[in-house]
Design goal:
Blueprint: H1 6-31, H2 40-52, E1 61-64, E2 68-71, E3 78-82, E4 90-94, E5 115-121, H3 123-126, H4 136-143, E6 147-151, H5 159-168, E7 177-181, H6 195-201, H7 205-212, H8 214-224, H9 246-263, E8 266-271, H10 285-301, E9 305-307, H11 308-314, H12 329-347
Parallel strand pairs: 5-6, 5-7, 7-8, 8-9
Antiparallel strand pairs: 1-2, 3-4
Amino acid sequence: MTRLPIGRRRKALYAALVTLTTLAVAELGARGFVAAAVNPRWRHHEQLVAAVGLPALNEILEPDPELFWRLRANVEARRVTGAVGDSGQLAFTVSTDAAGRRITPGGVDDGGTARRVLLLGDSCTFGLGVESDRTFAALLQERLPDTRCINAGVPGYSSFQGHHQFDEMELARPPVATIVTFLFNDKSHWDGRSDPEQAAARRGVGAWLARHSRLFQLLAALVRGTPDPAADSPQAPQVRRERLSDREYEVELRAIVRRCATLGSTPILVVWPLRSQIGGGDGDRAARRKQEVVRRLAGELELPLVDLVATFRGAAASGLFLDVVHANERGHALVAGAIEPVLRPILSR
């Protein structure tokens, strides 16, 4: 291979250093004019939470490059107040651990020897609107000696996020059982893109530069002729598209089940109810379709199933929900009571 003369190599090196220095200065200058890019999924959820009446919830959440958003780590007794739809005034306290999971109080100080139960889910698992010791994770832990229940529920999460959260999760010990509860967000219509489509749009060199380089964002904005280089504000969807289609929903649930098999953890699938399904109602069609996906998958794979639609219908017709989907303290107690008999034999193996 022919080598450049020393003089030409020095000139090339000097030109490269000048170019890099110029780009670095331009990048620093652009940071004075261009706001950091935030992924559209996070921005949409942030605005949605504020719009429904619970902006304080955003204070315990933060954007995440892969999961769109996540719970902040090491939150200490943060009081969250507001409302969700027709819930009336809510006030509850949230603390999180170093991994960004809502702390389940109580339990045994076992030095890591207690059996672990992992709860994957959305705000219904997280326990929106109820105190940490009244969530069904905490109530299960109370009922099951020598057991640690890890509440990995995150407000707004779909099964897509739950799957990838599970894959990234660092666990000191594999959970004996994993309780899987997703529904409401998967069926929601946001911006005309599914969660997998939004994730795919954030891959590649161009997407990486758009997230990390203010100079790139500024140049892209000049080319487009728009004042918003990040283009992060949720746009009105051109088509109605669920965050996860029924097929995508099934794919994500199957991925969670496979991850459980890798860890030697027994998955327990949960069919979560809507308030409109209690007291004689059927709920909306999209919810029913996804509930049927869970039932069918549990039957096909011979997995434990907890059908809370039947459970809630068998209880009092009212007084179980805070709003259209989130259970109140009484509802959480009912959930724990339905899961416990399914979980006990798994823990005793």
